[in-house]
Design a protein that fits this description.
Elements (H helix, E strand, L loop, with lengths): L2 H8 L1 E5 L5 E6 L3 E6 L4 H4 L3 H31 L11 H12 L1 E5 L5 E6 L3 E6 L3 H4 L2 H31 L1
Antiparallel strand pairs: 1-2, 2-3, 4-5, 5-6
Helix pairs in contact: 1-3, 4-6
Length: 168
């Protein structure tokens, strides 16, 4: 594997929710581990909306850290600077516009949780009402991880489609 690939594989990002009850780590490019900071943290939430908002904050922090780490790794290994300026090549410019506007969604295996994003930039977690009545903390985390895995799968399929469409 090349130096850039090794550097990207080694990238690890950690995040903590604003209320300090949920923590996350992104590693090996797309592996995300979410956990509660204590055994009681899950049970301290009063509503599904509250836990969804905190989970969204963690996911967004991981995405921002991943993007910043990616740019830093490219700069370190290649001396190239990645920026958000429009690319001079119209084909690449259209690809980037569609990539950044692609609606993505991950649904948990049990259907209790959805993670939606546009262009893998702003993640929004939604937890169905009744989840607290049906799921304990470990069951909830299983739902979180399956929704995130489904989001990555959706993102990979969208990127594959966009690459074929724009670059053949």
């Amino acid at each position: 594997m090349g130096r850039l690939a090794d550097t990207l594989d080694a990238l690890s990002v950690r995040a903590l929710s604003p209320d300090h009850r949920i923590q996350g780590q992104l590693h090996h490019r797309t592996k995300v581990d979410i956990s509660f900071t204590s055994e009681d943290s899950y049970y301290e939430y009063k509503s599904e909306q509250a836990v969804a908002a905190q989970l969204s904050a963690v996911l967004n922090a991981l995405i921002v850290g991943r993007n910043e780490g990616f740019c830093a790794a490219v700069r370190e290994v290649t001396d190239l600077r990645l920026d958000d300026r429009p690319h001079w090549d119209a084909r690449r410019r259209r690809f980037r516009e569609e990539r950044d506007g692609a609606p993505l969604e991950g649904q948990s295996a049990g259907g209790w949780l959805t993670v939606a994003s546009v262009g893998l930039r702003d993640a929004n977690a939604t937890v169905k009402p009744g989840a607290f009545d049906e799921l304990d903390a470990s069951g909830f985390l299983i739902e979180v991880h399956s929704a995130i895995a489904d989001l990555w799968k959706d993102q990979a399929m969208a990127m594959s489609y966009l690459r074929r469409t724009h670059f053949g």
